[in-house]
Amino acid sequence: MALSTLKGVNAVAFARKLSDAAKKPADLIPWQTSLSFDPSRDSDSTVTKDGNVNTQSSVSTDLEIEFINNTSAIADAFYDSLLDGDKMEFWIVHKDRKNADGKYFSWYVQASVSEDSNDNDADDNSTRDVTFSVDGTPKRGWTALTEQQSSDVDYVFRGLDKVAGTGLKETNGGKAWVKETDGGVNGAPSVTSTAV
After folding, report:
1. 169: left (phi over 0), alpha (psi -120 to 50) or beta
2. In 29-187, which ranges are E strands?
3. Exposed/middle/buried for 190, CB within 10 Å: 0-12, 13-18, 19+?
4. Are 141 and 168 part of one and the same domain?
5. Which residues span the domain enclosing 178?
6. H/E run at residue 84
């Protein structure tokens, strides 16, 4: 597999109240503008006659997300976490890193909101900057997205016909562009001639 870069725009955050784990899938946090994820481990060194001896502390993680303030249930859940101590589940999903099973590389943490800053300038949208206190060590893995989560993250091409069905099973009279096969004139693959 070729080496590729991961773009910040493709790292998106999903969250859910931990108490809702058996009731509903995680929600995409709408209109994210910034996501900061910073696991770290402090170390200390003691000088001995035989050389330095290092000790390490547990991993601590800083997690912060900024988004345009909105009326979504997950935005309100952050207030519940701060005011009532509700524990949250949080995923950072990298849309540009997918495995052979079609699952996306993700980080998972359990956290509580420790600060929720709200800016309300007269000439701009209201914004929120939410900081989380993360419990334990973040976990890495691969996650699938539900049809709703996939459509929340990105939308598909639609034709002019009426829409039937939902999510990936939707029909709408259109066909999405496929770069490898649809180049050239009128959707026909472009042909390059070679001299004989």
Report:
1. alpha
2. 32-48, 51-68, 88-98, 104-119, 127-143
3. exposed
4. no
5. 155-196
6. helix 73-84
189 and 169 share one domain: yes
CA distance linking residue 63 with residue 11, whole number of Å: 13
Are residues 127 and 172 both part of a single domain? no
Are residue 135 and residue 105 in the same domain, yes or no?
Answer: yes
Kindly state the helix (H) or strand (E) to which residue 15 belongs, with its residue range: strand 11-17
- Interval 47-95: pLDDT, tens: 888 778 777 667 678 899 999 999 999 999 999 999 999 999 999 999 8
Name the token pair of 146. Answer: 């539900």
3-state DSSP assignment of residue 165: coil
CA–centroid distance for 184 within its chain: 35
Are 127 and 187 part of one and the same domain? no
Number of domains in the chain: 2
